[in-house]
Amino acid sequence: MSTLSQTTQSNERAYWGAIFAMTLCVFVLIASEFMPVSLLNPIARDLGVTEGLAGQGIAISGALAVLTSLSLTHIAGNMNRKTLLLGMTALMAASGLLIAFASSYLVYMIGRALIGIAIGGFWSMSAATAIRLVPQHQVSRALAIFNGGNALATVVAAPLGSYLGATIGWRGAFLCLVPVAIIAFIWQCFSLPKMENDRAAQGTVLRLFRQPVVRVGLLACGLFFMGQFALFTYVRPFLETVTHVSASGLSLILLTIGIAGFVGTLIIAGFLNTRFYPTLMAIPLLMAIIAGMLILTGHSVWIVALLLGLWGLLATAAPTGWWTWLARTLPEDAEAGGGLMVAVIQLSIALGSTAGGMVFDNLGWQSTFGMSAILLLSAGALTFLTASKNQ
Questions:
Q1: Which end of the chain is less enclosed by CB atoms within 10 A, N or C?
Q2: Residue among 97, 129, 136, 92 at smallest CA distance from 114
Q3: For the whole prediction, is pTM greater than 0.70?
Q4: Residue 72 to residue 74: CA distance in whole angstroms
Q5: Interval 274-325: pLDDT, tens
């Protein structure tokens, strides 16, 4: 019997300290990933490049996250997973130092590449690690806590980066993340149990596509993220040109989306534990309804603010559902499945935002929101099909 199987079946102890230590890691990872968004101008000016080139630091971290997620299980082999997680945390701290003291654009991009590797490695192992750290009935709660760190970082990364950049400079902003990463490293050293891996590499993660339930489930997951980001990427121009909100109103609505999303991650585990597939189906269907209502009521500030708040609550909670699906569907292959999931999500976000932008520019915002609704409805239908294949 594999180590993972033994852990899954006999693990009655819940390592919640390790879960929260990893959540702190998630917070720093996501904050590091999106910090450049609010700091592009000073970064570009200081390094002597254009804002577009500085923005490629976000693109390279995403690309390396995908490559790492697809190859990590095969490369890492039988390495103790605690050592691997600590290595990813150390990479995160090294990335912050490299970026903060970058003397050239090349060094800056190397630092961004390191954070991409850490993001891909960490997320691809998240479901498999949760299975090892808590009993099976508490896995969805552990994943919801991970996602709570993600949601919180998404809310605060841009405004925090902007504030720190204005007070201590962009280098200081990145440097502030390093001690937090070191704290996460030390906390994990003491809280994570040893997690030996005695399973030999079984080929590439793509072998999982041989299973029909995995093919349909990942397609449903991919369509969900495509639909979400086809709309959400263009929320700001929608609010500014259609709803005509002020600058302060825009900030308040975006903050509302973020806070609602954080609340969503706190309550989703209860729904998943009691009615798993109905919850997983309801989220994209409700979001499709919201997209349709935004088309009809886009000129009313208060209605739009309420609808986008509901959107944030549902959309931010959804990844917990899909990571829980992965843990339930592939308990013996959650690490390889996690790598595949990261790649599917990243690719779907890129496709959704790109397609949404093309439609937005050529056919208008209503068509973009309509396309989002169709993708989300399709995700709901395929989730229903996934549920039938899992029975």
A1: C
A2: 92
A3: yes
A4: 5
A5: 899 999 999 999 999 999 999 999 899 999 999 999 999 999 899 999 998 9
